[in-house]
């Protein structure tokens, strides 16, 4: 018998028709040339009239925008170009007032190199964030076939990256570690990373988000 826990599927997903929104180019409410949260809120009736009852909102968090917002600098802060956390919470409310739902884009595989977690992880002295990302054990050690960057931090190691140089990979461990710096997938540091991401999800769920599209 399968003893894995089961979770109920939200009933609204059975009839969901999603409208994807990239906030930067969707609707500009303040005339600065960049789309924003307030612009999305103003267009909810339009989206509903199209026959959509759910929204997938592409990344709207604080970011240097070196990769269109997929390089997150702060998961708990709306990018100022898009508005404020209060604006996003107001959007949640207006979406729900119309009987609609909204998913945020969650980017759990990496952060921006400007994220506070990475700045701490890159320090020479060991700290609680040292293993939040994947680092090799020497500044001249490669990434075992994975892309890496070295020589840019006080830490004696190179960091593994996802996609672009600005996106250091978060540490969820390796299913089959081959090197000392490759930690196991269910090890304490990998689980700490997962717990940190769950905390971010709880943060936005408690403010009205209906769920996440995981990138």
Main attributes of the structure:
single chain; 215 residues; alpha/beta; 6 helices; 8 strands; 13% strand
Structure overview:
The protein has 215 residues and is an alpha/beta fold. 25% of the residues lie in helices and 13% in strands. The protein contains 6 helices and 8 strands; from the N terminus they run βαααβββαβαββαβ. The protein has helices at 23-26, 37-42, 44-49, 85-97, 116-121, 188-205; strands at 18-21, 54-57, 61-62, 74-78, 101-106, 148-149, 159-160, 211-214. The protein has a 4-stranded parallel beta sheet with strand order 1-2-5-8. The chain has a two-stranded antiparallel sheet with strand order 3-4. The longest helix is centred in the C-terminal third of the chain and has 18 residues, at 188-205. It starts with 17 loop residues before the first strand and ends with a strand. The mean pLDDT is 95.
Give a summary of the structure in a few sentences:
With 215 residues, this protein is of the alpha/beta class.
Number of strands: 8
Low-confidence stretches: none
Structural class of the secondary elements? alpha/beta
Task: Identify the overall geometry.
Answer: globular
| Percent range of helical residues | 10-25%
Give the mean pLDDT: 95
Largest sheet strand order: 1-2-5-8
Portion in strands: 5-15%
Question: How far apart are the first and last residues' alpha carbons, in Å?
Answer: 32 Å
Radius of gyration from CA coordinates: 19 Å
Order of helices and strands: EHHHEEEHEHEEHE
The main sheet comes to: 4 strands, parallel
Task: Please tally the helical runs, counting DSSP H or I stretches of 4 or more residues.
Answer: 6
